[in-house]
Amino acid sequence: MVRLRSLLVLVACAVSAPAARAAEITRLAASPDRPDLFDVDLQVRYEHLEKKARITRDQSGPGGGVVEASALSFDEVSSRIVPRVALGLAGRIELHAEIPYVLSDEPAWSPKLDPGFTSNLPAGFPSSAQVFHDNQWGDLVAGAAVTLMSERADDTHPTWVAGLDVTAPTARRYDPATGLGSSKDRPVAVGERIWGWDAWTAISKQTGPVDPYLKAHVLIPSLSGQTFSNCERYPCPAAGGPQPPKMMGLTAGAELVPYEDRREGQRVSVDLRLGGDWHTSGRWYNEISDLAGRLLETGEYLTLTGQAGLNLRASDYVEVRGSVSYSVDTSHALSDASWDPGTASGAGYGGRFHVDDSHVLAFTATALVSF
Description:
Layout: H1 2-16, E1 38-60, E2 66-89, E3 93-98, E4 101-111, E5 129-130, E6 136-137, E7 140-149, E8 159-168, E9 194-204, E10 210-223, E11 247-261, E12 266-279, E13 282-284, H2 289-292, E14 296-298, E15 301-313, E16 318-329, E17 332-333, E18 353-370
Antiparallel strand pairs: 1-2, 1-18, 2-3, 2-4, 3-7, 4-5, 4-6, 7-8, 8-9, 9-10, 10-11, 11-12, 12-15, 13-14, 15-16, 16-18, 17-18
């Protein structure tokens, strides 16, 4: 009889156990299964990025044709801390905001030549340089998100969320003509002084120990009254005004859940994902804008990213996350054929710059407290 009662208790607990947690990519501060009017998430994220690329330039090849010969090596190391606060309202809506503090962002250039070629950089164009963007606040990002469906409220449904994040031009504006005069003691600004409108949606559904998900987004930039323009330094319209690129992307992945205690809110998951972001062409900051002192015609390209992460949730209130990602950019132009960095008139030489072998290694660590 005692064994029967124990069995019935276990069955009752299993039936009444909370539904599965959504994947982190679809998690909001608000949760439809809780009656709380307000929920708060406080988060601190550390990001470290290392980027390397090869910069080439058109020149005459051995047979007389035009080839892309190596001209420069590009290296960038950056670190930042991003505090974030999210407020959940009535179990469905989340309002959130974050602002990065840039600890360091230091792009550097050095000469790189292919065998049999000599340097073909324009007159006055530096072959070795470093720029310092250190110890300052970046742009504020604020937004809202809503839970359209929740598997925690009804485990026959997936979790489906959608949101809009707005980047406000709060950071000091960066003039690319000032970068080469920077130093550790005199860093230059990081702000692009544009608005960014990032609309996104994500969906996930846990099946046993696997929680697959999909996320799509579109980022539309718009100019502010303080966006940098080449026309401030060079004759217009030949120099051209700012044209920031648009971006759209898709991410697919899955969380593998080797351990989960739904009643206690505990969960261990391994997050594996692949993603791609398409960047349209534009006249904007790129890998040689600091050297040229202006916004440059940048070709369209695709960024492909693979990421692996580990999420450790001790309860409904405390979580830590860590991830490592590797990204590559497809080859694309960094300037058009009519721009001459050695003059202010835009006289042409036909030697377009390109970027190739561009890859980024990034590490992220996050601590989250919910109440």
